[in-house]
Amino acid sequence: MKRIKQIDIKRALAMAGTFNFLCSCAKACLLPFLTLYFRQLGLTPAMTGIVMGTKHFITLVWSPAASLLSKHYNKRRAVICGSVVFSAAAALLLLLIPHTDMHAWTCNASDPHVGPPQNPSDVLSVNITGPVTSHPKPHVSQSLVTHLPDADRKAPVIANETSPHHHHNHSHTTESPLLYAPQKNESKVLESSSSSLATPVRNKRSELKSEQQTGEKKDESSLGFLGSLKVMDTQHQLFFLILIIMCVWEVASAPLEWNVDDGLYEYLDFADASDRYSSTRVWGVLGAACGVGVTGLLVSRLACLIAAQTSRSVVHFYCYASLAFLVLPLAMSLPLYLNKKRNRTSGLLKALQLVRGSPQAVLCVFTTLLVGVANSAIDNFLLWQMQDRGSSELHMGLSLALALLSQAAFPLMAGRVSRLLGPRRMLAVGAASLGLQCFYYSFLWGAWAALPAQVLSCFSSGALWWAVKLQCEDIATPGAERSVRRVYKSLSIHLGSALGSLAGGFVAQSIGLTWMFRGLAMVLMVWCVCLPLLQWKAPHHRRINYSRLLAADASEASDSESEQERDWLDKAMENDKSNNNSARKVYYR
């Protein structure tokens, strides 16, 4: 007889909490600062929004598909370990992209190692008007004769050499094109002679250019996408390389969360301790706060360039990769269980039907979707706004850590707040708090200005998801709570974030970051005004207490019977008793 292995619930919870802490810490070391790295590379807000939106779309589609395939083939642990390793390797691929201009790296003005960045217009004015004491002639002649043919280049040089004024005043010249311009009469002669000499040369060059263009078109048609990428400018080449690497990275990292969540939950559910799995999520929020705060502090203490041609932003990638490989031994020993009787696909479809059948749940879906759009725009471009106001990685890391800690502190006051407001009002309060945050972000004035608004994350994220949790419990049938909650998270975190990244990138590029935050604030405030009216008009289905129905006794069941059935049963029992008594009397006689 096969011996049943004993399940250690405390050990499983400890390992689950440690895994969530380290994984969230690794993601927080890099993902909040990733759009800032794209900005340093030279991507526009629209390009950054496309990259981040594609990332969320891949997660939305690939996470359930990969989780279903890994369960079907019983490869859940192999998928978890492979996701940890390949996601770390794919993140390091971004460091292999060559930097086009190292002067484009932005550093804080208070950095003692690097001075404030110079304005390109100031540098250009100095180069044009400033005196040049050494070799002015080659610089000016090269700038003036760059676009001329060979026959035209010789004429100004001969004229300048025969000019006595230039011969005597060579040491006192400045960088001005007037000193090297020929006389008016000489210029007419030179133009006519040079044009006659340069005509066959130009014809030959036009023929060569046409031949080169036809050859390039043939090469592009044969190479396809690579050929079209070859003729793009540097910025679009950089954009497509980053987009390809981000797609590979997200394909590798997307299956991790769902597989770990399902495996650990089914393991605890097998031991009738699934209700204790929610306690491990707090460690994920604490790990994210620790990772973003410590990484911001570490990077801010480094110089702008930690080595030759190496920016200090690479520390985020190295911290992410090192923590990912630290998680690998823990991923190999996670307690997982495969419940083949549980069908995840039918559970998600049933959860969608439950959400669609309740008007209050549909309003909650629209609220979470709108909140996801706003949160993605904040996650992508808040650090850009802070950097424009002089914030360093220290200010950014501490502000994001404060937001996560305030979000984790909401369950401590959730009981009192839920009794005062209720789940429906908490949705409106969460969306209104997020709108106030967006409106505050548009008026940042200094490096530490974003810190007071981060305290509102206690209500904008904590209260909102607490209300979503209560809504899930209100409409879900027994055993479908996780599926309904997963539907809400997928719609908000992934679908809403994808739409918000795309829309936020184009809006920020067209009207600027300041008006983008103000527009988000206006949309959220309008929805907060309309949401209570829609909730009041929508019918509210009363929750059915399934535990009370299951615990109903026989007396309650008998009360539901009709009077006719009772009379028929009583008459049958009386007849049976009379027949038995008469039979006994006859037997004793």
Automatic annotation (TrEMBL):
It is a multi-pass membrane protein. PANTHER family: MAJOR FACILITATOR SUPERFAMILY DOMAIN-CONTAINING PROTEIN 6-LIKE (PTHR16172). InterPro entries: MFS_assoc_dom, MFS_dom, MFS_MFSD6, MFS_trans_sf. The chain crosses the membrane at residues 12-34, 46-66, 78-97, 238-260, 281-308, 314-338, 359-378, 394-414, 426-443, 515-534. Residues 204-219, 563-577 have a biased composition (Basic and acidic residues). One of its GO terms (cellular component) is membrane. The gene is MFSD6L. Residues 120-132 have a biased composition (Polar residues). The keyword Membrane applies. Keywords: Membrane, Transmembrane, Transmembrane helix. Pfam families: MFS_1_like (PF12832). Residues 113-144, 189-219, 557-589 are annotated as: Disordered. It is found in: Membrane. It comes from the Eukaryota. Gene3D superfamilies: MFS general substrate transporter like domains (1.20.1250.20). This is Major facilitator superfamily (MFS) profile domain-containing protein. GO terms for molecular function: transmembrane transporter activity. Residues 360-589 form the Major facilitator superfamily (MFS) profile domain. Belongs to the major facilitator superfamily. MFSD6 family. It comes from Astatotilapia calliptera (Eastern happy).
